Amino acid sequence: MNIPDKVANFACYVDGSIELSGMVDLQLPSIEYMTETLTGAGLAGEIESITPGHTSPMNFSINFRSLADRNLTLAKPKNYAFEVKGALQETDPKTKAIIIRKLTVEVRGFPKKVDLGKLGVSKTSDTSGEFTCEYIKTQIDGKVYHEIDKHNMVCVIDGVDYLAEMRAALGK
């Protein structure tokens, strides 16, 4: 088994073609399941019960070095399709060879907040954008690890759709 090392590099595309300029980094969404605290007879205290496939609001954010035309337009109140393509670097422990694996993360959402940053002489502006996330799909070397589509009630984690039975129960 290779030793995971780092993200060697990445690029982010918007709506299928535009590559964002001046990116510093981005924060991928956290997957947090919705819970309800249960208590009552027969339970020794409280239990947090998850609802499989149902997630709390997810967010995605991008940080930029500077104000740039392509990035400033992300304030439009519309749904954007982001595609992050990355090169994951690993090391083969036997040969010490560096191995590059292909990462693809697709995220769709609306702008929540655009922070234009600050202006200073000979300084970066630290511009950023935060977006909702109604859809995410994470792949490494073509294998899908996550696909969450809130509008279509899909929650695939490592090949299992945890909402398939629920969709069937609802007649969908």
Describe the 3D structure.
By secondary structure, the protein is mainly β. It has helices at residues 69-72, 164-169, and strands spanning 3-14, 18-19, 23-27, 33-38, 47-55, 58-64, 80-91, 98-109, 111-115, 127-133, 135-140, 143-149, 154-157, 160-161. A hairpin with a 2-residue loop joins strand 13 (154-157) and strand 14 (160-161). It is globular and about 65 Å long.
Produce a short descriptive summary.
The protein is mainly beta. It is built from two helices and 14 strands; from the N terminus they run ββββββαββββββββα.
List the helices and strands and how they pair.
Layout: E1 3-14, E2 18-19, E3 23-27, E4 33-38, E5 47-55, E6 58-64, H1 69-72, E7 80-91, E8 98-109, E9 111-115, E10 127-133, E11 135-140, E12 143-149, E13 154-157, E14 160-161, H2 164-169
Oligomeric state of shown chains: single chain
List the helices and strands in order.
EEEEEEHEEEEEEEEH
Structural class: mainly beta
Strand content: over 45%
**How many helices?**
2
Q: How far from one another are the termini?
A: 41 Å
Rounded Rg: 20 Å
Strand order of the largest sheet: 2-1-7-8-11-12-13-14
Helicity range = under 10%
Largest sheet: 8 strands, antiparallel
Overall structural domain count: 1
The CATH C-level name is Mainly Beta
Task: Give me the CATH architecture, please.
Answer: Roll
Q: State the shape.
A: globular
Q: What is the CATH T-level topology?
A: Pnp Oxidase, Chain A
Number of extended strands: 14
Low-confidence stretches: none
